Amino acid sequence: MVLGFGKGEPLSNVDAAWLQMEDRTNLMVITAVMAFHEPLEFDDIKALLEDRFICYGRFRQRIVQSTLPFGKQRWVEDEHFNMKSHLIRLGLPKPAEKPELEELASTLASTPLDYTKPLWQFHFIDNYRGGSALIARLHHCIGDGIALIRVLLSMTDDSPSPQKRTNRRRRRRSPGTGFWLPEVVNDAYYAARRITGRVVGSGVEALTTPGKIMSIATEGAQAAGVLARLSTMSADPKTCLKGPIATQKRCSWSEIMPLEKVKNFGKRAEATINDVLLAGVCGALRHYLIHSGERNLEGMNLRATVPVNLRPEGPPGELGNRFGLVYLSLPVGLPTRMGRLRELKKRMDVIKKSSEAIVTFGVLNALGLTSPDVESAAMNFFGAKATAVMTNVPGPREEIYMAGRAVRSMMFWVPQAAHLALGVSILSYAGQVRLGVISDAGLIPRPADIIEHFETEMKAFITEEV
Predict the structure, then answer these.
(1) Which long-range contacts (CB under 8 A, 24 or more apart) does 224-228 make?
(2) Residue 23 CB coordination number (10 Å)
(3) Could you give the percent of the chain with pLDDT greater than 70?
(4) Which whole-number Å values give the CA distances from 82 to 28, 85, 216, in the listed order?
(5) What is the distance between the alpha carbons of residues 240 and 293, in angstroms, rounded to a whole number?
(6) Domains 2-153 and 182-395+418-463 agree in fold
(7) Is the separation of the CB atoms in 418 and 205 below 8 Å?
(8) For residue 253, what is the enclosing H or E element?
(9) What average pLDDT does the segment 30-48 reach?
């Protein structure tokens, strides 16, 4: 369907950028899994979605293209909205355990959403580990990970007795905000947006042509400096983790580990929980490379693009994308566990004082105004500079309930923008933390291997004396 001028709500520039990034091998869909100790009732979940989920108007809207030249995509009400298209009941082969759920999550993460309908689905699995599971899939153009996690949590309760809240949004205390850079929020945030809007708007070609950076430097020295550094940044090393990707993805997740033990070790090492977890991922990638036959790791660094939340704390409700990206260089070439942790802490401390996240938000805003071909070229350019996408979202600190059933565990995976083959997600919940990995099946056929190395690294950290 196409529309003329003025009908529907136009996508924001950043949301349009995430929409245009998608192709068959690079789905821009956030996938989340929730497992429950006890069986759920299908009708209860259906009623919950009707009561607490589609009260957000965006989930009853689909995307259409304007008939006008250079017209923007718009959100319009789906006149034929049917919950049957969005809540689907599935069964797993018995006995259904973690491998079976991982296989299903992998299949769904490889399957595009239907663009003729609102871009989300829930899959109800009623025979997982003696309880049930839900797999939610939501397109990134609807909102970023923080926004969508807040919406999912708005469907939960603090006790087994659910309360009816028809057409009212939950007031649950929002989860943490992931990688958070307070130094670049508030006044600096809005000032930098104005600067980057002018700098990046002067031409996306400036991103891939370093010489053109100087001609716009007077418009914002700091923003131009960040753009110059990004544009001249070398490509990441060629390893078994990089290469052309295909359509099939693989999902895996770790067993839970006590968050308090990670926190206590971090205090002894004078590092944050994030620092320790990232060092665990860094060590896992090092050992994966070694076991995969990579010979020369000395001095090697692999970059991860890390989403940085720019959304203020508040109740669920505001969707859309409000985050920037930073490049975190992982010192996989360092041979010792503590050496990697100390170096990562130094690098994270530098990032926290940088305006890189704000500048990349401006880049995404500008890309949303370009043609898909230009955006694809820019994303491929930046994708060459990284090996993975990595994110960390703190979840609820206490056990929560959905439809009267306790949530046993949660996990999610972010899309691998810029045709990257590896995505790493860290999620804490109810005093536990776990790692999720999604990968291209051709390049990294067993992401569980990375998970196993991560678990080994974290066990060693927790028991290590500093």
Answers:
(1) 224/199, 226/354, 226/355, 226/356, 226/359, 227/199, 227/200, 227/359, 227/363
(2) 13
(3) 79
(4) 23, 6, 50
(5) 9
(6) yes
(7) no
(8) strand 249-253
(9) 95
Question: DSSP letter at 93?
Answer: P
- Phi, psi at 456, each rounded to 5°: -65, -45
Sheet holding 9-10: strands in order across? 2-3, 61-66, 74-77, 9-10
Burial bucket for residue 398 (CB in 10 Å: 0-12, 13-18, 19+): exposed
Q: Is 180 helix (H, G, I), strand (E, B) or coil?
A: strand
Q: What is the DSSP letter of 431?
A: T
Looking at the DSSP assignment, which residues form a beta bridge with residue 433? 257, 428
Residue 262 tokens read as: 């990670």
Whether residue 440 contacts residue 249, with contact meaning beta carbons closer than 8 Å, is answered with yes
The pLDDT tens digits for 384-404 are 889 999 998 888 999 999 999
Burial degree of 442 (CB within 10 A; 0-12, 13-18, 19+) = middle
Cα–Cα dist 136/134, whole Å: 6
CA gap 339, 122 in Å, rounded = 43
Q: Domain 182-395+418-463: give its CATH code.
A: 3.30.559.30
State pLDDT tens for residues 246-279: 999 999 999 999 999 999 999 999 999 999 999 9
Tokens coding 195: 């600067």
**Domain boundaries defined on the chain:** 2-153, 182-395+418-463
Beta strands in 23-142 (DSSP E): 29-36, 61-66, 74-77, 87-90, 120-128, 131-139
The residues pairing with 123 across neighbouring beta strands, listed in sequence order, are 88, 135
Which residues on adjacent β-strands are paired with residue 405? 402
CB neighbour list of residue 313: distance below 8 Å, 6 or more residues apart: 174, 177
- The CA R_g of the chain, rounded to the nearest whole Å, is 22
What's the pLDDT score for residue 291? 96
| C-alpha to C-alpha distances, 45 to 163, 217, 245, 350, 444, nearest whole angstrom | 14, 54, 35, 45, 35
Over residues 16-27, the mean pLDDT reads: 89
In CATH, what class is 2-153? alpha beta
SS3 33: strand
Q: Give dist(CA 464, CA 339) in Å, integer.
A: 13
